[in-house]
Amino acid sequence: MTSQRAGTAAVDEVVDIVSRLIRFDTTNTGEPETTKGEEECAKWVAQQLEEVGYTTQYVESGRPGRGNVFARLAGPPDSDRGALLIHGHLDVVPAEPADWSVHPFSGSVSDGYIWGRGAVDMKDMVGMALALARQFKRDGTVPPRELVFLFTADEEAGGQWGAHWLVDNRPDLFEGITEAVGEVGGFSLTVDRPDGEQRRLYLVETAEKGLSWMRLTAHAKAGHGSFLHDDNAVTDVAEAVARIGRHTFPLVMTESVSEFLAAVGEETGLDLRPDAPDLDTTLFKIGNIARIIGATLRDTANPTMLKAGYKANVIPQKAEAVVDCRVLPGRQEAFEKEIDELLGPNVTREWITHLDSYETTFDGHLVDAMNDAILAHDPQGKTVPYMLSGGTDAKAFAKLGIRCFGFAPLQLPPELDFAALFHGVDERVPVDAVVFGTKVFEHFLMHS
User: Fold this and answer.
1) C-beta of residue 318 within 8 angstroms of C-beta of residue 219
2) How far apart are CA 304 and CA 122, in angstroms?
3) What is the pLDDT of residues 3-27, one digit of tens each?
């Protein structure tokens, strides 16, 4: 490992890079014909990399405009270690400007924050990765292993026209990669200790639930709304939706969640044992992050869409609903059996989207490098594993046997409701957190 870097270039430009990334409106509606901005943003990213000497690959993932950018930074010529993938998506969920206190695509930097859609999901990490990639290339840095920077399309709609397409159709692009780091990990959670002090825990994502969007359908005989009907598709679907929406799935303790609860319990003195009498309620004493953690104790199935009918006085032939299902590792078969018992006799189901769950262990050299990087910049910090209740592009890369983690380090103010910022109004990230994260991420990459 050799380097002639000044060590400050990335920190100096990262805030501006994140702000400029947010100014690209890369709204992903989930419909290819109305999704926009990914190509323009990806080509700008490629330009920033080429400006400092990278050879980039711009790849469209199955549809025009679904732009992805690859760039590789070589490690030592005699290294026999696999490459590390650093990945981030460029698309964002929609935002309604009228609801925001600043324009969601302004990239405004004010009051100590960078504001805009994508600030935390995930143009902050994209900006850190891009700033560090530029610094490394400018300064002739040779990292301890080959680094592969990848900026993807379509993550917010499940990656069908992004990471999953790349993995299924261009696996050659991932040759030599053995491990990966991406979003929704490395951020701090400040907890209160029994002695009155506080401790910052940095949550490393080692697992994520499966993502399955399920369509429910019921059929019936059409008829006049004034007649008696004992066969009504709307009623059948509505009853199934109500049963599923009110159902509580059993508590299942996975390794990642068990380790997280043990670590937090040790720091706080809270009773977070799997058999604790009131675990769900106690969990909320650690703060708003409990909305994510609580959702990893059991499977969830939340109805999100209903569709039926075309006139007020006509019983329709068909009614449909969509349910957002998030399933714990190892639970898919049991989950489907439970759902089938809730549907009722006249309702059928089909998967619109199905992406597997993922879990890895919290050990090994890469985990040690994450912890060392945090401690180098926050000596009182501590890394702990956790499971993400949502999903990321890691689901795609895991299909290639790549070991994936979420590690986008941020030191957050204790009072900030970080979970609420994901897909929320007035999404923003602290400037200081991004600067801190860039320093930590540099240390991590140089010791990975």
Assistant:
1) yes
2) 24
3) 434 457 999 999 999 999 999 999 9
